[in-house]
Structures are given as structure tokens and as C-alpha cells.
């Protein structure tokens, strides 16, 4: 992907000297990115289905997700008001924020006291792959979009481990999974809005 | 008393239900949130079901609070979405926010809370059905097809990309049971091919957001496909008809040229043809048409049997014949020219016209006399080519050898007459008394005999040919005729055992009977009288026959020992007498008589001696 990104970068830089041809390359890239981002929630839904619905007492609140500090649009109007650069930045920031938790989850999954921890483990690995490929694609995308789009908010992940006892581990695992599911939705939505906004030549596809 | 009791009972029965009703009032039962749905990811609605109402009018209220705050809000709109529903409008809807919703049922006696439900709008999106579904029939080179088009539901904002919808449609014939489903992706148009001509189709469309629930199916759209012949089927029909046509034509052509096709495919295997001598054929002894040899067997002895022709032929090996068929007919080699030349000492067929020297071969039983075909040219018969002339061996009677042998017999073979005229025959020796020195004097005798018979020969015409035509007589009867006559003759002349050659006996040909048998009778027994008379009348003058020239003219030799002198020139008369002697046999004289006579006359007059012995006697020199 890095090779391809450099190659495409050069290629596009040559071609797009005069005319703004972001849309051409962007739309394809955006399409791919949105397809990639689309896969995340699906995988998470499958992974989440293994967990029984927890009582709300035991379940930590979603506001305790470590990415909740990142300000993201809350509704459609807000989302449509966000600039493209911000959108791509948000998407990349969120994606980046989940690299470490995914590592934790993948390491904790095999020892998870759950009957189908094997499936969960494989799902986590799948999520890692998707996340990686999407991140690379977005990197290429921001290279096309300009330097102002390359700002990334760093969101540290402080969760060391999931807990000591079996229950807290399961709960924390499930909680992390749910946080990631929502954030994958956000990423997907942001990219799709970005895609439709960037492809001015084909409005009917959106 | 009774009345009071009844009254109290009545009152109690009336009051108690009312009291009981009042006693049944309870706080409402627990409501339950059934579902919350958002059609556009901008608003959402929640529905609940009521529990028991507790006997009192119960009100339901919905409360919620968002995940980040503890502020509890009540449902802003209970009516838009219908009964027992709460509608959240755009302003109140936040995305990626958990709503904690609770429904409370309240009546006069109390209230009841439902279980709280966490709802994130993003996860509950279920759009409305696609709108404006249109189905049309379009024509294509392959036939008609359906084009289905639709629009996204009005509320779903797909233009901004806020919602991405994917579509699905299903189609079936009206009378069919199973639907045929197709995923259409994000496109808003779909083509359906391979339709049943004349069928009525039903089409329905639904949609789903990328992460959400499927919408309901749209209302069915009906479309009728016009009648048409499927191009594929029509193409196959055309191909089938064309192939059948070609096949018929090929069959017809092959039938017409059946023989040549068979010849081409199954070339005839040439059978083996053996050139030359065919042993089998000869062994069989069956006379083929042109090989048919007609012969007249003359038995000296009744016991004698007819020797098979083939054996004779083989023994002699001296056959002269004209082959009438192709060279590789497989006939006996004796028929071939070359063999004849070999075996017969160079006697060739070319000597047709002349009386060649008959070659005598000493067979087992006796000497043979060979026939030549000399008549073909003389008679001037038309088709000498196909006249088969054969020489046949003559087995002579013991008269020659002087020993009695069972197999002595003479055969006189005659060729069968295919064509007209060819008959040559050899006169059996014993017909005329001959001596053993026959070979040497074969000539004169033969000439004599020839002279006697030459008339017949020369006078041969087709009719006379028939006369002298002796067919092959295989059955003994014919032979017996001969035999008898011969025997008679033999007896008369010499008695059994004596060589008849010693006796001077003459056999005259009386006639040819209807079976083409030459009826001979000894001159001594029957008609000898006249001949004798004639013979006796005339002075016995003899002239030796010197030879026969090429013209079939007897060359007589004068002899000095003529008993009667001065009668030389009477020879003519004699000849004439002789000629007269057999008036019956002479039919159709040819010119040969003339020259003979004249020749003789000349010779006779010129020379002092010489005789013509009309009877082929073996001169005893």
C-alpha cells in the first residue's frame, strides 16, 4: 500500500497540476474506503452477538468509551456542516484511536471465559485487518486532499487490562467491543458523507 | 323474613360487583417497549404495549435520558405515530447517542415503569419502502425484457450520503408460487430477461440501509409480457429444419448413387483368377458350352464304357480348339493355343483350311486320329471363330492292335455346333477295315475316307451340318446303335477277335436319324447290293491317293499295277458312279466334287496306273 500510495501520489501530482482532479481519484478511493469502513460494523455486530445482553447496571456507560472525548457531530445537520478536512480527520483519528484497544482485545480474546472465544478471537483479528487497510487508504486519501486534512487528534487509550475476575473481564471486553462498534459506524458515516460530497460529477450515485 | 332475605341478597348482589370493581383497581400493569425505529436516521419512533390497566384509566408516558446526562425528558410527541407511541423529531434525535427510554403507566392507583431500553438511533434504521416503482416492457434483439425502476423513500436522505441504501427486488409470474429475488445494490433500476411470452409478472422492491433493517416490500406492480417467439428457440427451430433438409437431400443423393457409393466404400475384392489349366474343370468333365464336345462313340464291344472325355483329352493332350472366351477363363489348357502348339507338334489352328496331316498319337488304347478343322473355310461358314473344333482322340478298336481290349472303342467326336457349320470328325478307323499299318497309310486311307466323306463335308451347309451333326452321345444307347452295327459289321466281316481291318468291309452312312445319329450300315449287309452292284459293275479300278493338296483336292497317284488297263480314263465314270452311289448322302454338292473328279480325270488319263480306292482300305504293302 505504501508503494502504491507513493506511486499514485506521483501519478496524480503530475496529472492534477492544473485541473483539480481530486474528484476522480478521490471518488474511487472514497468508494474503497467506505467499503472498508462498512465492513467494520458488520464484524462487530457478529462479535457482539456472542455476548448476552448485560444488565444496564453492570454495563459501563458508553460515555466511558475512551473516544468520547473526541467531538463528533451528533446529528445529520451537524455532520453535513462539518468540512471535508474535518471529516477525514475525524475518521482517521477514530481509527487510530482503536489500534491499541484492538491489540488488547486480540490478546485477551483467546483467554476470554466465553464458550465461543475462538470465534471472537478470529473476529478481532479480522477487525484489525480491516482497520489497517482502511487506515492505509485514508492516508493516501489525505495526501490527495491537502495538508490541512492531515491533522489527527490523538486519543490515548488508558485501559491496561480488562480486569482480574472473570466477570469484569467479560464485561470490559464487551464494553470495548460496543465502543468500537459505534466508532466504526461513525467512521463509515463520515466517509460516506465525504464520498458523496467529493463526487460532484456523479450526484446520482449518492 | 323471606322477603327481607331476598332483598338483602339482591342488594348485596348489586352492590358487591361495584364494591368489587372498586376493589380491583390496581396500579397499571407494566408496559413494555416493543420497538423503536428510525426511517431516516434523523427521527425515530418507539412503540410500547400496555399492560393491564388496573381497572382505571391509565396513562402512559415515556421518559428518556441520554447517556451523558441525567436529565430526563419526556416524549415530545405521543400522537404522531399513533397510539402507544412516541415520536422523536429531528431536534430531539441525536445520533451515536444512547437513549435510555422508559415507559410509565400511570393510573389513579399508581404507576408502573417498564424496563428501560437503550437505543442508539444508528442501529435501528429501517427505511420506508421504495417509492414510485415502475415496471416496463422493453424490446431487445433477444426479445422483450422487464425494466424495473424505483425511487428511494422520500424521507431517506441518500443524496447527501447520510443514508446509503441498497435495494432488492423480487419478481414472479402471477400464477407462480416462488419469488425470484435479485439484489440491485445501490442502483435504482433493474432489468429482467428471459420472460415467458404472454405472462403476467408481479414485481416488488425493498431497501435497506448499509447497517440497518430491511424495509417492507413495496406494493406489487403488475406487468404483462407480450407474445413473442423466443429468439433462441426460433434459432434452434431454424437449425433443426435446415439440418433435416440437408439430411434429406443427402439421403436422396446417396440413394441415387447407391451403387457408386457402395463401390466407393466397399470396393469389390477381386477374386482370384487362375490363368491356364484348370484341373478342376477338366476333372469335372462337365462340358461347358463352348467346350462341349460332341462326339459319337463307337464301341466295338458292348462292355466298353465311354471313356470320359476329360481323360481322353488328357491322355492325348492333343486338342485343338479355338477358345471362345477370354484368356483367363480357367479352362483347360488343352484349349489354349499355346498348349496345342506344344502338344500337338505344331499343328496350329491356322491350318484350318488344309487337311493337315492328322497327327496320330499313340494313346493307351490305340492310335488316335486327329481331326483338324478343315471345313471351316471350305464351307465358308460364317463364324469360324466361334466354331469350336476340337480334335478328339480316337481310340481305336482292337482292330488296330489286334488284341481284344475292353476299352477298345472308337470315339468319334464331333464338335458341337454352336454356330453353323463346323463339324469335323474323324472317321473311326474301324468303320473301315484297316490294317495295322494304318498310321503310315493314314493318309491315303484317310484321304479315302475323307474322300468318301468329303462330300459330306464339303457339302456342308448349315442344313447339312445338322445332318452330320452328331451330338455328343453319352448315353449308351446311341453308342449301342453304333455298337450293334459295328458288331454286326465286325461279325460279319471278321468275327470277334479278328481284326476287322483284315476284312474289307464297308460301312455306308445310311442316314442321320432324328437324334442326329449317324446310322451306318455295313455295306456288306445292307445296301451293299447296289453299291456292290455299282461297285461290281464298274471295274475295280483303284487309284492311290497321293495326297491332298491345299485345295482339298485329292491327288491321285497312278499305279501301274492296275488290273484293268485301259480304264484309266474311265475313272471319271467311276467317279461319277461313285458319286452316284451315294445319292442320298449327297446333298448339296459343292464344287469340290468337280475338281476332284476333274483332277482325277486328269491324273487318270495322264498316268497309266493309279487308282482311287473309294473304300479306305489299308493297303497292304
TrEMBL record, chain A:
The keyword Disulfide bond applies. Residues 1-23 form the signal peptide. It is found in: Secreted. The keyword Phosphoprotein does not apply. One of its GO terms (molecular function) is hormone activity. Gene3D superfamilies: 1.20.1250.10. Belongs to the somatotropin/prolactin family. This is Prolactin. It comes from Oncorhynchus mykiss.
TrEMBL record, chain B:
Residues 27-127, 129-228 form the Fibronectin type-III domain. One of its GO terms (molecular function) is metal ion binding. Residues 1-22 form the signal peptide. This is Prolactin receptor. The lineage of its organism: Eukaryota, Metazoa, Chordata, Craniata, Vertebrata. This is a receptor for the anterior pituitary hormone prolactin. Keywords: Disulfide bond, Glycoprotein, Membrane, Metal-binding, Receptor, Repeat, Signal, Transmembrane, Transmembrane helix, Zinc. InterPro entries: FN3_dom, FN3_sf, Growth/epo_recpt_lig-bind, Ig-like_fold, Long_hematopoietin_rcpt_CS, Type-I_Cytokine_Rcpt. One of its GO terms (cellular component) is external side of plasma membrane. It comes from Oncorhynchus mykiss (Rainbow trout). The chain crosses the membrane at residues 235-256. Belongs to the type I cytokine receptor family. Type 1 subfamily. The WSXWS motif appears to be necessary for proper protein folding and thereby efficient intracellular transport and cell-surface receptor binding. The box 1 motif is required for JAK interaction and/or activation. Residues 347-385, 576-596 are annotated as: Disordered. It is found in: Membrane. It is a single-pass type I membrane protein.
Amino acid at each position: 500500500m505504501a508503494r502504491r500510495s507513493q506511486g499514485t501520489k506521483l501519478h496524480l501530482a503530475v496529472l492534477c497540476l492544473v485541473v483539480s482532479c481530486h474528484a476522480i481519484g478521490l471518488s474511487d478511493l472514497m468508494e474503497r474506503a467506505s467499503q472498508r469502513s462498512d465492513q467494520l460494523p458488520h464484524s462487530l455486530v457478529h462479535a457482539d452477538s456472542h455476548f448476552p445482553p448485560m444488565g444496564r447496571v453492570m454495563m459501563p456507560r458508553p460515555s466511558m468509551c475512551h473516544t468520547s472525548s473526541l467531538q463528533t457531530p451528533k446529528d445529520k445537520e451537524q455532520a453535513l456542516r462539518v468540512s471535508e478536512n474535518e471529516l477525514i480527520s475525524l475518521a482517521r483519528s477514530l481509527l487510530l484511536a482503536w489500534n491499541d484497544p484492538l491489540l488488547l482485545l486480540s490478546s485477551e480474546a483467546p483467554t476470554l471465559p466465553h464458550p465461543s472465544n475462538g470465534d471472537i478471537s478470529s473476529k478481532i483479528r479480522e477487525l484489525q485487518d480491516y482497520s489497517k487497510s482502511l487506515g492505509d487508504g485514508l492516508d493516501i486519501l489525505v495526501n490527495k486532499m491537502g495538508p490541512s486534512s492531515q491533522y489527527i487528534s490523538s486519543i490515548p487509550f488508558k485501559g491496561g487490562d480488562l480486569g482480574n475476575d472473570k466477570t469484569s473481564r467479560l464485561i470490559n471486553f464487551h464494553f470495548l467491543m460496543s465502543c468500537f462498534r459505534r466508532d466504526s459506524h461513525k467512521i463509515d458515516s463520515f466517509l460516506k458523507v465525504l464520498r458523496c460530497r467529493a463526487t460532484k460529477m456523479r450526484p446520482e450515485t449518492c | 323474613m323471606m322477603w327481607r332475605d331476598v332483598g338483602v341478597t339482591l342488594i348485596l348482589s348489586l352492590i358487591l360487583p361495584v364494591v368489587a370493581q372498586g376493589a380491583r383497581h390496581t396500579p397499571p400493569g407494566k408496559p413494555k417497549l416493543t420497538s423503536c425505529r428510525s426511517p431516516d436516521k434523523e427521527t425515530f419512533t418507539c412503540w410500547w404495549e400496555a399492560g393491564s390497566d388496573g381497572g382505571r384509566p391509565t396513562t402512559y408516558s415515556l421518559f428518556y435520558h441520554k447517556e451523558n446526562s441525567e436529565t430526563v425528558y419526556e416524549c415530545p410527541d405521543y400522537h404522531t405515530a399513533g397510539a402507544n407511541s412516541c415520536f422523536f423529531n429531528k431536534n430531539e434525535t441525536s445520533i451515536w447517542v444512547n437513549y435510555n427510554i422508559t415507559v410509565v403507566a400511570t393510573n389513579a392507583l399508581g404507576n408502573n415503569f417498564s424496563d428501560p431500553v437503550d437505543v442508539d438511533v444508528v442501529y435501528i434504521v429501517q427505511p420506508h419502502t421504495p417509492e414510485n416503482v415502475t415496471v416496463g416492457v422493453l424490446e431487445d434483439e433477444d426479445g422483450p425484457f422487464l425494466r424495473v425502476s424505483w425511487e428511494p423513500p422520500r424521507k431517506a436522505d441518500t443524496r447527501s450520503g447520510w443514508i446509503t441504501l441498497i435495494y432488492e427486488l423480487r419478481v414472479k409470474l402471477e400464477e407462480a408460487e416462488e419469488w425470484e429475488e435479485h439484489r440491485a445494490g445501490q442502483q435504482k433500476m433493474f432489468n429482467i430477461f428471459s420472460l415467458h411470452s404472454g405472462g403476467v409478472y408481479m414485481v416488488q422492491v425493498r431497501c435497506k440501509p448499509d447497517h440497518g433493517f430491511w424495509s417492507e416490500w413495496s406494493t406489487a406492480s403488475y406487468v404483462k409480457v407480450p407474445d413473442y417467439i423466443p429468439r433462441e428457440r426460433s434459432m434452434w427451430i431454424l437449425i433443426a429444419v435446415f439440418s433435416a433438409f440437408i439430411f434429406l437431400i443427402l439421403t436422396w443423393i446417396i440413394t441415387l448413387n447407391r451403387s457408386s457409393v457402395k463401390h466407393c466404400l466397399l470396393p469389390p475384392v477381386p477374386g482370384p483368377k487362375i490363368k491356364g489349366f484348370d484341373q478342376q474343370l477338366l476333372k469335372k468333365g462337365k462340358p461347358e458350352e463352348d467346350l462341349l464336345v460332341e462326339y459319337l462313340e463307337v464301341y466295338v464291344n458292348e462292355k466298353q464304357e465311354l471313356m470320359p472325355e476329360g481323360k481322353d483329352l488328357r491322355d492325348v493332350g492333343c486338342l485343338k480348339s479355338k477358345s471362345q472366351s477370354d484368356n483367363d477363363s480357367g479352362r483347360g489348357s488343352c484349349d489354349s493355343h499355346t498348349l496345342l502348339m506344344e502338344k500337338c507338334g505344331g499343328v496350329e489352328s491356322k491350318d484350318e483350311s488344309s487337311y493337315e496331316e492328322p497327327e496320330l498319337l499313340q494313346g493307351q488304347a490305340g492310335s488316335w486320329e486327329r481331326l483338324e478343322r478343315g471345313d471351316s473355310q471350305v464351307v465358308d461358314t460364317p463364324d469360324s471363330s466361334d466354331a469350336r473344333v476340337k480334335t478328339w482322340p480316337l481310340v481305336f478298336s482292337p482292330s488296330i492292335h489286334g488284341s481284344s481290349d475292353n476299352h477298345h472303342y472308337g470315339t468319334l467326336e464331333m464338335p458341337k455346333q454352336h454356330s453353323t457349320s463346323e463339324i469335323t470328325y474323324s472317321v473311326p478307323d474301324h468303320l473301315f477295315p484297316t490294317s495295322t499299318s494304318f498310321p503310315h497309310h493314314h493318309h491315303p486311307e484317310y484321304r479315302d475316307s475323307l474322300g468318301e466323306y468329303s462330300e459330306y463335308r464339303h457339302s456342308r451347309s448349315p442344313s447339312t451340318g445338322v445332318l452330320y451333326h452328331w451330338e455328343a452321345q453319352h448315353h449308351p444307347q446311341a453308342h449301342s446303335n453304333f455298337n450293334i452295327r459295328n458288331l454286326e459289321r465286325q461279325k460279319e466281316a471278321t468275327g470277334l477277335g479278328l481284326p476287322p481291318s483284315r476284312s474289307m468291309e464297308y460301312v455306308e452312312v445310311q442316314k442321320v436319324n432324328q437324334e442326329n445319329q449317324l446310322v451306318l450300315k455295313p455295306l456288306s449287309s445292307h445296301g451293299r447290293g447296289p453299291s456292290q452292284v455299282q461297285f461290281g459293275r464298274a471295274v475295280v479300278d483303284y487309284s492311290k491317293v497321293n495326297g491332298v493338296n491345299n485345295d482339298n483336292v485329292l491327288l491321285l497317284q497312278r499305279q501301274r499295277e492296275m488290273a484293268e488297263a485301259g480304264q484309266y480314263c474311265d475313272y471319271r465314270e467311276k467317279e461319277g458312279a461313285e458319286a452316284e452311289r451315294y445319292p442320298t448322302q449327297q446333298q448339296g454338292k459343292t464344287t469340290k466334287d468337280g475338281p476332284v473328279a476333274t483332277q482325277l480325270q486328269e491324273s487318270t488319263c495322264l498316268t497309266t496306273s493309279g487308282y482311287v480306292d473309294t473304300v479306305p482300305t489299308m493297303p497292304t504293302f
